[in-house]
Amino acid sequence: MTILETARKILNEGPICDHCLGRQFAKLSTGLSNDKRGEAIKLVLAMQASADNDTGLQEELKNTSENKCWVCNDLFLDLDLWAEKSIHVLSDYEYDNFLVGTRVTGLLAENEEIVWAEGRSTFAEPLKTELNREVGKRIEKMTGKRANLKKPQIVALLGLENDDVELEVNSLYIYGRYRKLIRGIPQTRWPCRECGGRGCERCDNTGRMYQESVDELIRPHLIASACCYDTAFHGAGREDIDALMLGDGRSFVVEAKRPHIRNIDLDALSSRINTEAEGKIEVLGLKFVESETVEQLKSMKADKIYRLKIMHSTSEEKLKSSLNIISGTLIKQKTPTRVLHRRGDLERMRRVHSADLESYSENTAVLVIFCEGGLYVKELVSGDGGRTVPSISSLMGCEAKVIELEVIKAG
What we know:
Low-confidence stretches: none
Mean pLDDT: 93
Largest sheet: 10 strands, mixed
Distance between the termini: 65 Å
Radius of gyration: 33 Å
Shape: elongated
Helix content: 25-40%
Number of helices: 13
Number of domains: 3
């Protein structure tokens, strides 16, 4: 079937606007908008009708120019209006790029299926694709912002059913490193185990096991800076609550959800966080990143360096000998008993690269352990009732346990 035959078949269904007719041939030719395609096709058909004295075709063309389009209900007459509505809703947000999307009504979707079935054109594009593009072009012209088809910061969704525009605001991601300078605070918000965050006597009706966390010391400052709905904290692993995180810190990404402001002064943000934290934490090297960084962070398998203060009852020579044996050894660990309530009972293999004695006294010693990420170093010392093999305790032939822990390097 030729283009004109296909167009004639489509015209037989009823009045159709230039946009909807031209859209059936959108994949043909370049540099033309669909309404220009439709207009050109109608012009050629009018010329053919005149040449053939085809009164039927002439009547169809007259009908289609004088009546509402049965496919889109003249939706494309309101392109400027949809652009203005979108800009009004977008005006409360800071953005460098955007995208337009459309939720079509059931009627429009049905009409489109009918015209596709009757016309059988293999060159058509969906109505919402054209609407998104045409409204997007007008927003670009009115605002100077650019449409981004792959990773928009914000999406204006045209709701044809309710004649409104909704926004999907993509998160803002900030990478940094944190140092935890006091013991007793977790990395992230920790709901109360008793009430699940609802509030109870155990948690003093706060809904939290701990009243502060690294996450919560950062959160209010980012909310204030980005005017965002909430934040989410993504760490490259985590240290124990009673451990310090020293050295150059642990990598993290903090996500600002539904931010109104994107162009944040990260140096000023860092300064405010560190000042208000009052020596509890310190953030370093804040920079903007893409969402993919979160997944990269979660999949990091970096080696770690720990400083451990342990209690023991052995000689310096025996301790040194045990550390020499465990250096370079592959450790078999089952999930520690202290975390079995929240983690699966798995067995993992992790290597100790080196284990050095930093200082020794009769009942305590300070060790520096360099190992693969994911090794539980407290259990490396204690043995955890035989769930970690070998352990420093088993090699010394006496019990030992960690009483202070510092993370010196976390990748």
